[in-house]
Amino acid sequence: MKKRETISSLQRAKGERKLVMITAYDALFASLFQESCDMILVGDSLNMSFLGEPDTLSATLEQMIYHTRAVCNGAPESFVVCDMPFGSTNTPDEALTHAVEVFRRTRADAVKIEGGAERADLVRHLTRNAIPVMGHVGLKPQSVRAEGGYKVQGRDEKSIERVLQDAAAIEDAGAFALVIEGVTPTLATLVTRECDIPVIGIGAGRETDGQVLVWSDMLGFFESFKPKFVKRYLNGAEQVKAAVATYAEEVRNGLFPAEEHCYR
Ligand code: KIV
């Protein structure tokens, strides 16, 4: 059985071993992931892959709490991070109230907050009140409408400078780890070197302290779009469709249920 991670063990991992994080939204899949992964993120990406919305912006705190409870129930041996949804952390006090709500109603170990230097005071307010925070810099999906799309960062000096400043400010505010998303490997390497806390990449190359992927992307269940950075480790959608088609055919032609599925 894998040993449960803590903030200290995750921080000690920097430079020693790569950290593995995966998203999960329910107890069943979380229970399958806990053995191989160091952390489970209940990402607001669930709004897209579970609810079918076009972006993450309409995810609510209630939704995040519901799914985080499920994940904590399914993977009691995992370090679980709950994503704070768009609009739930507009001021330091509001962020604290909502993060406390997450902690009271789930067994999450930490919350994740998207944003850069402009959110440092808010992160500091949470960490000073015993809420561990994972930052999220680089491409920030919650800013998709403000930015006019999902824009890879680090292709020009200005964005390199900004992301470096964001990472430094969030670390300085007390975050225990950072997600860095959608940046060039060069920028991710710089951030990983500059930060003393673990930096977990998604679409950020190989040099970060760890990786995170959205489970439905990496298992091939989310078919409508495959970002460049995703590797599919399973053809989930194809396999599920084939299995359900077989079930339907067997029901229709009377092969299921067979004798062994009947009570006597
Ligand atoms: O919501 C999410 O799944 C995330 C990951 C992409 C890091 O924030």
What's a concise summary of this model?
The protein is 39% helix and 14% strand. The protein has 264 residues and is α/β, with parallel strands linked by helices.
Question: How would you characterize the overall build of this protein?
Answer:
It is a single chain. This protein has 264 residues and is an alpha/beta fold. The protein folds into 2 domains: 227 residues, TIM Barrel (Alpha-Beta Barrel); 30 residues, no CATH class. Helix content is 39%, strand content 14%. The chain contains 11 helices and 8 strands. It has an 8-stranded parallel β-barrel with strand order 1-2-3-4-5-6-7-8, surrounded by 5 helices. The protein is globular, with a radius of gyration of 20 Å. The two termini are 39 Å apart. The model has no long low-confidence stretch (mean pLDDT 97). The chain binds 3-methyl-2-oxobutanoic acid. 3-methyl-2-oxobutanoic acid binds next to strand 6.
Descriptors:
binds 3-methyl-2-oxobutanoic acid, 8 strands, 264 residues, alpha/beta, TIM Barrel, 2 domains
Mean pLDDT: 97
CATH superfamily of the largest domain: Phosphoenolpyruvate-binding domains
Bound molecules: 3-methyl-2-oxobutanoic acid
| Fold-level CATH name of the largest domain | TIM Barrel
Measure the end-to-end span.
39 Å
Oligomeric state of shown chains: single chain
Beta strand count = 8
Portion in helices: 25-40%
Which second-level CATH architecture of the largest domain applies?
A: Alpha-Beta Barrel
